[in-house]
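To the wet lab folks,

You asked to see what we're planning to order before we commit. Fair enough. Below is the target structure as tokens, and below that is the sequence we designed to fit it. If anything looks off to you, flag it before the synthesis order goes out.
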């Protein structure tokens, strides 16, 4: 699942994207949420999850995105600190 957009894909579609080198934005759905993801896909290869919804899958995606954003802010602060310490 692409946690920034809510794009949910099945395993076969993910393998296809991975072989093309286009799967870097996608994270595997954790084991406890796989049943919910399967229900959301409903036999299709891909679907969109409403990230403003209250489903467990949406909440997981929001939390994952927050972790990525927090890591990005931390990396930027570390970069600025290293730059300031070089002078």
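Sequence we intend to order:
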């Amino acid at each position: 699942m692409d946690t920034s957009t809510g794009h949910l894909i099945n395993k076969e579609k993910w393998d296809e994207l991975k072989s093309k080198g286009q799967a870097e934005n996608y994270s595997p759905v954790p084991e406890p949420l796989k049943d919910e993801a399967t229900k959301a896909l409903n036999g299709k290869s891909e679907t969109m999850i409403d990230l403003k919804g209250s489903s467990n899958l949406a909440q997981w995606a929001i939390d994952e995105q927050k972790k990525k954003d927090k890591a990005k802010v931390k990396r930027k602060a570390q970069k600025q600190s290293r730059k300031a310490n070089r002078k």
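Structural context that might help your review: The mean pLDDT is 91. The chain is about 55% helix and 5% strand.

Thanks,
Computational group
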